[in-house]
UniProtKB/TrEMBL annotation:
Residues 3-120 form the HTH-type transcriptional regulator Rgg C-terminal domain. This is HTH-type transcriptional regulator Rgg C-terminal domain-containing protein. InterPro entries: Transcription_activator_Rgg_C. Pfam families: Rgg_C. It comes from Suicoccus acidiformans.
């Protein structure tokens, strides 16, 4: 799973979606362990971000729905923020220009929590749209 999480950026979108679905079918046996759940969240969040950036919105929605079904705990604050950001990014890509304000708020939250690398990465993914 670690190898897959760290190689998602070099896969084609079709390969990414196929492998992600296959990975999910195999990791459900291990989701009781906290560390494995976190890896599943990380994998799904990365896949959702890439799908949205690639305008594969149907696939992004599929994986966001899976994340919603996992019912992230309150302790998973980082993952919750990234999921909310992705939902706003998805809405933006679907034409809701008001979602930009939400995305910038989530980026600001990450900065306040000293998650500067993640905040920068997310801002980079939307920078072309910020002044629209």
């Amino acid at each position: 799973m670690w190898l897959f999480i760290n190689s998602v950026n070099v896969l084609t979108i079709d390969t990414l979606v196929t492998l992600s679905s296959e990975m999910l079918s195999r990791v459900q046996f291990y989701d009781e362990l906290l560390e494995n759940r976190r890896k599943i969240y990380q994998m799904l969040l990365n896949v959702v971000t890439i799908c949205i950036e690639s305008d594969c919105l149907a696939q992004a929605l599929k994986f966001m729905n899976i994340l919603d079904s996992l019912q992230l705990s309150e302790a998973d604050v980082f993952e919750r923020i990234i999921l909310r950001f992705n939902k706003a990014f998805y809405s933006f890509k679907r034409g809701d220009k008001d979602s930009m304000k939400l995305m910038l708020e989530y980026i600001d939250m990450l900065k306040k929590l000293d998650c500067l690398g993640t905040a920068e990465k997310l801002f980079s993914s939307i920078s072309d749209f910020v002044n629209m």
